[in-house]
């Protein structure tokens, strides 16, 4: 081998060595290494389950709050029915009948005045015509009181049908109440209906008592007047004077 060839062989060997060293490094691919940790996986699953449970609890809480608000709205809902106007009309009808009392009204001053004059002791100085007029006035007062009592009774009987329909409607509203306020309002209106019925009963008792009192007062005044008229009849000089009476006229 010549010197020239030896140098060429050395140069080729020098060039070949780097390529041989670098080739394995360039040919090997890069791969990611995945490591499975069971403990970490279990912790992640547990955290996710706890988060889901919290969400479910929040949803349940919101549902309970919504239900509570709905119930509160029902409890605060007002009753969509009112019998106040009908009850007031019934009371007004009865009051109107009482206010139309004839002659001696339901007034303390009028009653006192009547008993001082018409129903008082028979005046010894009053004329017979005046005694008769007073007796007639007392009789008219009694008749008027009896008529007033019957008119009040008729008016109260007329209210019975209205009261019956109102009671039926209020009981239905109470049974169908959606909340505490509606049930309470229905109960209050039923109490108002009872109060109106008691007012009618009071009016009937008052009118009947007035008529009875006038009749009793008339009898008492008539007895007093009878004593005065008997006294006048038996008083000498002003009582009965006997005389001749001719029953049939005789002809000549």
SSE arrangement:
Layout: H1 3-27, H2 38-76, H3 84-99, H4 108-117, H5 128-175, H6 180-234
Helix pairs in contact: 3-5, 3-6, 5-6
Notes on the structure:
Mean pLDDT is 82; it is low at 15-28. The chain has six helices and no strands. It starts with a helix and ends in an 18-residue tail after the last helix. The chain has 252 residues and is mainly alpha-helical.
Percent in helix: over 70%
Rg for CA atoms: 57 Å
Unreliable spans are 15-28
Annotation field: number of helices? 6
Shape: rod-shaped
Structural class: mainly alpha
N-C termini distance: 225 Å
Summarize model confidence as the mean pLDDT. Answer: 82
Give, in order, the helices and strands: HHHHHH
- State the total count of DSSP E strands: 0
Largest sheet: none
Strand content: under 5%
Summarize this structure as a short list of keywords or feature phrases.
252 residues, mainly alpha, 6 helices, rod-shaped, single chain
Brief rundown of the structure:
This protein is mainly α. The protein has six helices and no strands.
